[in-house]
Design the sequence.
């Protein structure tokens, strides 16, 4: 399985208590051990799932992708200093749009969590990133990977109200019959791990709204977090990923209730 998908499933395990995802970090470590050529970057991102993650200083030389150069400093901002121009880079990434924009938003989530709830990003920059990401969802009848990512990350940032019911409906309609999602709804029945995990992340937040979720980054030992019912959430996850028709019905019921509030 794609290793970075396992890190995203680990977030869902810790946030929603889905027992099928309980071994996600163990499976990630198995992949890490079998891929020495990719081990440096895998060690860097392992911090998402393990607060006590260890790395080699040279591992950071593997951080070459432009989106990773935006998120990794935020990922380690509780133990490594940000550069003086980091906020400028964050703003520039947002202006450039696309996946740089979505990852700039994710970086603000990690900065906030690593600073234990204290503001780490100027409010005007945060607001810009929130609304710019909302714009990625578009107004067409279809959906694509970057739009789903924007919606999922808005929920991670506590800005789920910027995700319209109409967009969620479009995501539900775009689900393939194998339970997954395509990079674009124009590519029917070609499911990919990335939009599939992001869509699951989005729909679980829609299905189980809360004013306070466990953090996306694995917290320090002893950190007190709330929990959901594992059996209840496990059922929804299976419905979404396997039994597509029932899954659509389950989320549709939630949206109907949500529209009545």
Sequence:
């Amino acid at each position: 399985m794609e290793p970075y998908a396992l890190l995203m499933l680990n977030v869902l395990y810790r946030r929603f208590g889905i027992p099928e995802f309980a071994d996600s970090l163990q499976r990630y470590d198995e992949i890490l051990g079998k891929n020495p050529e990719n081990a440096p970057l895998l060690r860097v991102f392992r911090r998402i799932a393990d607060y006590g993650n260890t790395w080699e200083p040279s591992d950071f030389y593997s951080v070459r992708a432009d989106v990773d150069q935006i998120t990794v400093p935020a990922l380690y901002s509780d133990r490594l200093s940000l550069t003086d121009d980091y906020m400028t880079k964050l703003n520039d990434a947002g202006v450039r749009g696309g996946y740089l924009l979505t990852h700039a938003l994710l970086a603000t989530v990690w900065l906030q969590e690593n600073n234990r709830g204290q503001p780490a990003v100027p409010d005007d920059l945060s607001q810009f990133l929130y609304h710019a990401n909302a714009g990625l969802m578009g107004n067409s009848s279809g959906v694509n990977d970057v739009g789903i990512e924007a919606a999922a990350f808005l929920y991670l940032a506590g800005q789920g109200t910027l995700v319209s019911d109409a967009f969620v409906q479009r995501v539900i309609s775009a689900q393939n019959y194998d339970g997954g999602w395509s990079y674009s709804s124009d590519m029917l029945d070609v499911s990919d791990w990335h939009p599939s995990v992001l869509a699951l992340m989005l729909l679980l937040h829609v299905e189980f709204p809360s004013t306070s979720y466990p953090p996306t980054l694995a917290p320090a030992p002893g950190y007190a977090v709330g929990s959901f019912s594992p059996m209840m959430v496990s059922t929804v996850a299976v419905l979404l990923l396997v039994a597509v028709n029932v899954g659509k019905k389950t989320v549709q019921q939630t949206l109907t209730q949500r529209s009545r509030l």
Confidence is low (pLDDT under 50) at residues 242-261.
